[in-house]
TrEMBL record:
Any one GO BP annotation for this protein: protein transport to vacuole involved in ubiquitin-dependent protein catabolic process via the multivesicular body sorting pathway
Species annotation: Mantoniella antarctica
Function of the protein: Component of the ESCRT-II complex (endosomal sorting complex required for transport II), which is required for multivesicular body (MVB) formation and sorting of endosomal cargo proteins into MVBs.
Entry GO terms, CC: ESCRT II complex; late endosome membrane
Protein name: Vacuolar protein-sorting-associated protein 36
Listed Pfam families: EAP30
Cited InterPro entries: Snf8/Vps36, Vps36, WH-like_DNA-bd_sf, WH_DNA-bd_sf
Keywords, comma-separated and alphabetical: Coiled coil, Cytoplasm, Endosome, Protein transport, Transport
Family: Belongs to the VPS36 family.
PANTHER family assigned to the protein according to its UniProt record, in alphabetical order: VACUOLAR PROTEIN-SORTING-ASSOCIATED PROTEIN 36
GO molecular function, one term: ubiquitin binding
Length: 151
């Protein structure tokens, strides 16, 4: 009947969500006093492919949104995310949370130098500039990265 159909759809949706996200998210109940450490480790396992796809760096608010989406209904607070990120160095996790002079907080992998990240960002700006038409200021800013072409 209709209830069997809706139950099957709900089960199919749950399987799809689990395939996209985190199957057993760390919670305060499951981790207790070690909650932030376990959250830091879960982020360290989950973040590398996400960062790689984003060019090696993501603003912290983006990490918050994407991570919570992957967790499904076990959402974390911005404060818990920040506390977990601040534990990476202590736990020897190769990720860092940086605050730029502009006030923007980002997450990046320690295996990418600032020069590499800048080169990726300049290529992205140059590519989006080519797609959007000509903006002379942006073209000049990205001109030095065009001779090698996109990576």
């Amino acid at each position: 009947g209709e209830s069997a159909s809706s139950a099957a759809e709900a089960s199919e949706m749950e399987v799809m969500m689990l395939s996209l996200g985190i199957t057993s998210p760390v919670t305060r109940d499951s981790a207790g006093a070690l909650y932030h450490q376990e959250l830091a480790r879960q982020l360290a396992d989950w973040l590398p492919p996400v960062l790689h796809k984003a060019g090696g760096i993501l603003p912290l608010p983006d990490v918050f949104c994407i991570f919570n989406r992957a967790r499904g209904s076990e959402l974390i607070s911005p404060d818990d995310l920040l506390k977990a990120c601040q534990l990476w160095a202590k736990l020897r996790i190769p990720l860092q949370c940086r605050v730029f002079s502009s006030g923007v907080t980002v997450v990046q992998s320690l295996d990418r130098s600032d020069d590499e990240v800048c080169a990726v960002l300049l290529r992205a700006v140059a590519t989006s500039d080519d797609d959007a038409g000509t903006d002379e200021g942006a073209v000049e800013a990205g001109a030095g990265t065009r001779n090698g072409g996109p990576a």
